[in-house]
Amino acid sequence: MASFNLTVEDSSPLISYLPAGAWSDSPANDTLLSSYSGSSYHITSTQGATATITFTGIGITIFGGHRQNYGTYQISVDGQTVVASESSAGQDVFQQVLGTVSGLSNEKHTAVVTSSSASSIDIDYVNVQTQIGETSSQLTKSTVDDSDPSFIYTPASEWSVNDQNYFMNDTLHYTSSAGASASVTFSGEAVALYGTVSQDHADIQLSLDGQNVTFGAGANGFASTLHSQILLYYAQGLGSNQHSLIVAADPQSGTGPFIDVDAVVVYSSIPGSTTSSISGLMMNASCSDMTSSGKLPTKTIVGIIVGSVFGFLLLLALLLLLLRWRRWRRRGQADLRSPLTPTLPIQNPDTLEAGLSTRLGGSRLSQNSMSSFYSGTPPEEGFMQGHSRDASTAESFSSMAPINASSAVPATRDHSISSNAPIRPNLRPPPLKLPGS
After folding, report:
1. Cα of 68 vs its chain's centroid, Å
2. Per the omega criterion (within 30 degrees of 0), is the bond before 19 cis?
3. Could you report the per-residue pLDDT of 202-223, keeping only the tens digit for each?
4. Strand partners for 146
5. Which residues pair with 396 in a beta bridge?
6. What is the pLDDT of residues 20-58, one digit of tens each?
7. First to last CA, the chain
8. Which residue, 167, 276, 321, 401, is most buried by CB atoms nearer than 10 A?
9. Residue 183: which of 160, 206, 165, 203 has the closest Cα?
10. How far apart are CA 418 and CA 50, in angstroms?
């Protein structure tokens, strides 16, 4: 199931303090008031005084102060005493666990803190652990701020807006008209209503899907000052279908005329095989971590933008590095495929000369090298040029061979070679002329 926490401040109407007048709200002369959650706490020095909270969930933890000259207390859940302890301490410490109970069935329970001595005890806040949905469900949470168009204020002229920064999303709708109401439609399995409590507030009449409930909002000594971002009402087990919530003032004798709306938080579950990070962290439903409905917090938006820009720059840098690496790799492969050809002796005909063996530019020239096999450019006049298959004008000769000793006419054969071919000796013997032929 999807699990989460609800923070119930000491000034929430979900906690009832008895007997009337036995508990005091946040003494103004306490210089250590700011050490408490929300800078508020309820204190009593009446033996037998009780603070009672009815909740639906699987566990509960109650916090208070440990201070000098504090007394003893007991905590019971569903009528069974689970804690009997004391709050006295040699040094003042705050937001301490007075008692905790876990492993309860996910249904309605009642926890009671009872002062068991005439010395003081106080209550700071209460954490309720609860669940919705089926096994392995994931939790989703959406906040509908009072400024959201989903809220309908009737009549609109009877409602005003307070934009102080100690309200959720820095806005609060309030009215002092007995006939005014605020309504909102939502879909979800649980809902929490947040607003303020103060001594000048009227009682609140709330209707959820036609079921009415009335509760106080700080009058009749319950609150001595204004407390903001307070959980006024919570209900679960609603089903995932659409629901309607309406709040209106219900002035009574001794109450003030005001009511207000700060936000509504809706909880839903999504079936799944794994628990989401939201539900896995036991999400705290305190007002400090809430955002307006349908809107991401400014810090989240800035974080998304910065992260996107950084990611783009990183991707661009990786792409440039990849391109440079590929270019370097291609150049290296080209060098391997086409190494520089060293200067060969026969590629430099200027240095060739019969019988010469020397070095030029780190290349060795061989005595028997012939430039005409590789170059068509003559190194100097009189040297052979061209290919060996071409005619050469470098040299010509005549071959004269006797036919026989008695013959006075020599047989002459011209063996001139074209100018473009190297001179080759004619090793064939001259033709013989036999007697009588």
Report:
1. 46
2. yes
3. 999 999 999 999 999 998 889 9
4. none
5. none
6. 999 999 999 999 999 999 999 999 999 999 999 999 999
7. 129
8. 167
9. 206
10. 132
